[in-house]
Amino acid sequence: MSKSWYPVIDYSLCKECGACFNKCKNGVYEKKENHPVVVYPDGCVEGCHGCQNLCPVGAIQYVGDTTGKDDCGCGCCC
């Protein structure tokens, strides 16, 4: 888990579909008033793009992402 890699949600794009919340099994997100909120950024696996890949509107970026590639080896089927 990483403190230098975590998701940031662009709420101007987010459609509240829940894909990120449903995908992440590490407790990174909570739903608050139907909005996904990053509540545990330390739970995000460095290099994982799973939530970003599932977001239908591209509302998720990652702090620490310099490659744009999924190279985490986390096994989450990113």
Give a short synopsis of this structure.
This protein is of the alpha+beta class and 78 residues long.
What would you say this structure looks like, in words?
- The chain has a single domain, classed as Alpha-Beta Plaits, CATH 3.30.70.20.
- The protein has helices spanning 19-23, 50-54, and strands spanning 6-9, 29-32, 35-38, 60-63.
- The protein has a two-stranded antiparallel ribbon with strand order 1-4.
- It has 78 residues and is an alpha+beta fold.
- The mean pLDDT is 88.
- Keywords: 4Fe-4S, Iron, Iron-sulfur, Metal-binding.
Shape: globular
The topology string of helices and strands comes to EHEEHE
Terminus-to-terminus distance: 16 Å
Tell me what portion of residues adopts beta-strand conformation.
15-25%
Strand order of the largest sheet: 1-4
Number of distinct helices: 2
Number of strands: 4
Low-pLDDT stretches are: none
Pfam families: Fer4_10 (PF13237)
Organism: Clostridium fermenticellae
GO molecular function: 4 iron, 4 sulfur cluster binding; metal ion binding
Keywords: 4Fe-4S, Iron, Iron-sulfur, Metal-binding
List keywords for this structure.
globular, 78 residues, Alpha-Beta Plaits, 4 strands, two-stranded antiparallel ribbon
